[in-house]
Amino acid sequence: MFHAAPSTPKAWWRESYNPTMASADNLQYCWDEPDFPTAASRFKFSHCVRTPLPWIEELEKAAVSLAESTSKPIWICSSGGVDSETLSEIFLRLNLPFSVLTVEFADGKNAHDVVYAKRWCQQNQVRQELYPLDIFDFVKNELDNYIEDGYVAGELFRYMMVKEMSIVESMGGFAILAGGEQLYEVDASKRVLTVADPYLKVDISYTTPLEWCRRNHLRHEPFFYFSTPEIMLAWLRIPLVNFVLNNPDFFRHPTNKHALKNSVIRYHFPQQQWRNKYTGFEQVLNLARMVQARLENHFGARIQKSRLYVTDLLEQLEPVKQRLPDLERSRF
Question: Which of 162, 156, 160 is nearest to 295 (CA)?
Fold first, then answer.
């Protein structure tokens, strides 16, 4: 998640609210002005403390660490997407106790998405709590509270993450969300692409669920796939991911970033049912766009997006004592 970093004259780094969790030493963020926390924001990840195991084994280690870090019942927040289903599969195969929370919009507005979560829980006999929510009422009656409290985000989705954690908190549980996927992009307008071109898009919205936990002195995990640097580096070292990053023209088509992720996941979980890429907001797109425009109007330039190039990400993640030679690093 995030932790304290050495202070500098121009930057103020957030301190960890939960030093016992697996994510406590990974995602860090800062604002350049401590008294104006929506000023220029920056993100970085921590070095691995050891050589990563294969990706699946790293997911299992993180799941066990999270389960051991809390005495509260664990709730995996699942909308029906492949990321939350994969997370649920990991807990299931390890026989770790957990339940599933699924937010179900009124009038079946996200039924096309949550059907997968319902089916998976039924097939695997996992307890599922279906939480009814009128998304229009949420925007009308709750969103302003988050905005007025200074939780900066550029999209409705990040506030929904906070809502899910608040639901689990009200039930006395520990929430785990399947955030933190590595979706690479390139500047497709460039004629020639090299291994230096792929990047992850990061923005201040990452701080929204983290800040909610920190300010309220609560413990939850909103970004499971960012929860340890070893998970992230293990993903980068998967042969297929490695190959594609060395052939970045693959990312010229914007949907291929999802194709790569799904191919890797289904290699490990071949029984996982194929589905379209859904956000859960397909039936309320006008509402989501209205909220986005409203947020952009309210926060303006404070909604910042930046590029974290994979070459820089590798520099951040690689174990300090096991840095790859320059030539080898350039080839991933």
Answer: 156
- Residue range(s) defining the domain that contains residue 278: 48-330
**CATH number for 261:** 3.40.50
Name the domain count of the chain: 1
The amino acid occupying position 284 is: V
Residue 331 near residue 246, CB atoms below 8 Å: yes
Q: Are 214 and 14 in contact (CB under 8 A)?
A: yes
H or E element: which one contains 93?
Answer: helix 82-93
3-state helix, strand, coil in the chain (%, to 5): 50, 15, 35
Each of the 332 residues of the chain gets a pLDDT tens digit; together they read 333 233 333 333 343 333 333 343 477 777 655 445 444 567 889 899 999 999 999 999 999 999 999 999 999 999 999 999 999 999 999 999 999 999 999 999 999 999 999 999 999 999 999 999 999 999 999 999 999 998 999 999 999 999 999 999 999 999 999 999 999 999 999 999 999 999 999 888 888 999 999 899 999 999 999 999 999 999 999 999 999 999 999 999 999 999 999 999 999 999 998 888 778 889 898 999 999 999 999 998 888 788 999 999 999 999 876 554 443 444 44
